[in-house]
Design brief:
By secondary structure, the chain is of the alpha/beta class. The chain has nine helices and 16 strands. The protein is 41% helix and 15% strand. Strands 3-6-9-12-14-15-16 form a seven-stranded mixed β-sheet. A five-stranded parallel β-sheet has the order 1-4-7-10-13. It has a four-stranded parallel β-sheet with strand order 2-5-8-11, with no helix packed on it.
Length: 310
Amino acid sequence: MENRLREIVENLVDSYHEVGGINRVDSGGSLPSNRKITAACDNLLQVIFPGYHDKEPVPAEELEVITSERIAHLMVVLSGEIAKTLRFRTGQDEKDRQSDFSPSAQSVVSEFLGRLPDIRHLLRTDVEAAYEGDPAARNFEEIILAYPCITTIAIQRCAHALFKLDVPLIPRIMTEYAHSLTGIDIHPGAKIGTHFFIDHGTGVVIGETCTIGNHVKLYHGVTLGARNFPKDKDGNIIKGNKRHPDVEDDVVIYPHATILGGQTVLGKGATIAANVFLRESVPPNSFVSTKGEELIVIDKATKERIISES
């Protein structure tokens, strides 16, 4: 057995030399800790929803002390992890990558933590939307404790704040952690308005360049994705272009609808029926459905067809 173990180790080490791109040895700095970041997500949920994610009740008279301790802990953990990532910002040359990013990281974390009250205001509207949008919801406690959309949206809103502060790596780790917990995949770059509700949620995918308005409701299996991936003259995918749809205020999208494309806009008040496959914009206050392979768009007010395509 000892010989067999030695053989396994030798073969693995040989593969490290032969197979590049998935090793990180002597690379001039450590990467952020996935475990620390996911733990920080749990800590953020405790700060955002005090008393909901705690093993013991949070006494009102101790709230300030407990919050102070938690913010101090988050400051230390996030500053350390973000300092590891700032050298990956676009445009850093090799000299910049060797810099001490601790002061910059502390500044970023201070700015981020200062935005938590605003994030809480947004999340309050999301909880309200879930309560108003789901007849099975009995109270806010049930929604905050049990609804996967609230966990995902809370983490995504925090990740989006870090994304806007140009923090590499960590926002995506955060949203993929939420994805692993709930089955809802929202990129940290997606911009989401107030009163956002995802009913059931499993299988929802929202891409990086999506913009979602206020009072939008999605059901399970909805995809807001990219239609294609433009490439440069060398055949490499062009990064950073607008690839995902815009969803205006008061839109409802029913289960397993797929909406694709960076130029696609769902107009205010539109309703997209289940299983619709859509690659073009639809006007405000329209109802979109399919009959076989035919796409049908009806004006809600007049009940007249606007678009009918096969």
